[in-house]
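User: For a benchmark we're assembling, each entry needs the component sequences followed by a predicted structure for the full assembly. Here are entry 17's components. Please fill in the structure.
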Amino acid sequence: MKPKRKTSAQEAVERMHDDAVVFIGGFGRGGVPENLIEAVCQKRLRGLTIVSNNAGTSSTGIARLLEEGCVRKVVCSFPLAKESVVFKGLYNKGLVDLEVVPQGTMAERIRAGGAGLGGVLTPTGVGTDIAEGKQVIELDGRNYLLERAMRADFALVKAHKVDPMGNLVYRKAARNFNPIMAMAADWVMVEATSEVAVGDLDPEAIVTPGVYVDAYVAIASAGQSMETAA
Amino acid sequence: MTATGLTLDQMAWRLAQELEPDWVVNVGIGMPLAVVPFVDPAKDIIFHSENGIIGMGPELEGTGVVDNDLLSAGKRPVSLIPGGSFVHHADSFALARGGRLDAAILGAYQVASNGDLANWKLPGARTGSIGGAMDIAIGARRVLAIMTHKTRDGEPKLVERLTYPPTALGVVTKVFTDLGVIAIREGRFILEEVAPGVEVGEVSAATGAELCTEKTCIMSLPR
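Assistant: Structure for entry 17:
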């Protein structure tokens, strides 16, 4: 297998373009590829649709993209967290669109996108606002919503370790949406905390096989996931 | 006379008694978090956190180093119990929808006597935060709601039909309020226990639907 492209964050995002749909891993501050996000900000892209669980935490992560005016629409499950101050400001002024998706439905739509399926049938959201405009299918006496699969042009993924083949392992709950997003985008960029040699990752423990990865950045930042509580 | 009712800690304590040994339990953010410290560790409950933690341990208190890779659904630092594990988001919700949750503890704006739950969006609001509530509510085998019996304005939160946007239909099995424990069976509210010092009639008056009080007993609290 040919080694994957190891780049800088700036090079990794080089082929990203305006109006793209972008998956960004993370849940709260865990597993957010903050260096790749910063590189996207510097590229001054416009009109992005961002798919991620949250709408940014204080001034980090997706909040940075919102601040820089890169985002047209946010697709997420939990837009109004106390810390999502940047998003709320823009949303209240009508400067960013929002699609709220139940968290498990979002996960399963992405998984379906990565698995070559057209969509999924889920009981989640039946009889709620979420069902509006969606087909309801009854199977064996239970109602399900037909939810379309979701794919993206690009995925920004945060991993713990990467090897030159692009194989990934994650750290604790920073795994969250990252592995499924890596499977469902046309171009997958990984920001890993450290790089190890081929063969150093236990094949039984690799979560994302390198076949899904197009480029990676290794940014040694042992302190990144840890911060001192105020 | 005005009912005084239970404190949040007492409500949380009572709900904690409802959990049975070896259950797998999801705990929502907000009021449900108050339940966890009252759960007897000897019950070996496995707590599930929607962000892929199976076997979430207690919240870590105090200042010091925060590990952003190990936060609860409410984004607070937590621990992992020995033998705990991590899964990605699709697997975390597969567990929830797939019937592996013995119970979910959720906060609520309103609960209807048919078990309908409202907890994500205020009426007339442009949007709200769903998070994992819709998936967890339809997936868990029991949905235990914890909430005050009335709104701050004194409106009943236990109602005949929801006036708030629903989160899930027909899912709530029991409600734990400051006035008592209300089971939902066959489309009816059944007052199983009333808080000490509260009259059954006061609970009925505070409830926006018929309340069955035939077998109500007085809740016993720890001294």
